[in-house]
Write a structure and sequence with these properties.
Elements lengths: L9 E5 H7 L2 E13 L2 E12 L5 E8 L5 H6 L6 E12 L5 E5 L3 E7 L2 E3 L11
Parallel strand pairs: 4-7
Antiparallel strand pairs: 1-5, 2-3, 3-4, 5-6, 5-7, 7-8
């Protein structure tokens, strides 16, 4: 059961617990810097194995914020955990029906040791 205690248009998830609930073992979170236009962008690569189905988890999660050069320099090569956000918003479909649209997950913080760290750049506008 999902609960929404205080977030009007998004839900944040602790990735380690989220994937554990989905029976994913050997989960790993690895930052991956890629060039998008002129910008260095930090994706988080997630991989593991879903024991109940045998499916191999292999995905990249885009960041919620832009990364500064300092953010990238300070980021460790492996992460202990991440927090990600899934946004949602109401819209009207082509038949005039009200629906709730859900966005793709975006990572908002990474965990290294006991430290939770966010990127310090501006909020990303998707569709950029």
């Amino acid at each position: 059961m999902n609960i929404n205690l205080n977030q009007a248009s998004y839900v944040d998830y602790n990735a380690a617990n989220y994937f554990k609930a989905a029976n994913v073992t050997n989960i790993r979170f690895t930052p991956k810097v890629v060039k998008v236009g002129d910008e260095d962008t930090v994706l988080i690569h997630v991989d593991g194995e879903q024991t109940s189905s045998g499916i191999c988890v292999n995905l990249d999660i885009w960041p919620r914020n832009h990364a500064t050069a300092e953010d990238i320099k300070a980021m460790p090569k492996t992460l202990d955990n991440i927090y990600f956000r899934v946004g949602f918003w109401p819209e009207v479909d082509e038949n005039g029906e009200k629906t709730l649209r859900t966005g793709s997950p975006k990572w908002v913080e990474y965990v290294h040791g006991t430290e939770r760290v966010s990127l310090t750049g501006d909020k990303r506008e998707f569709g950029e």
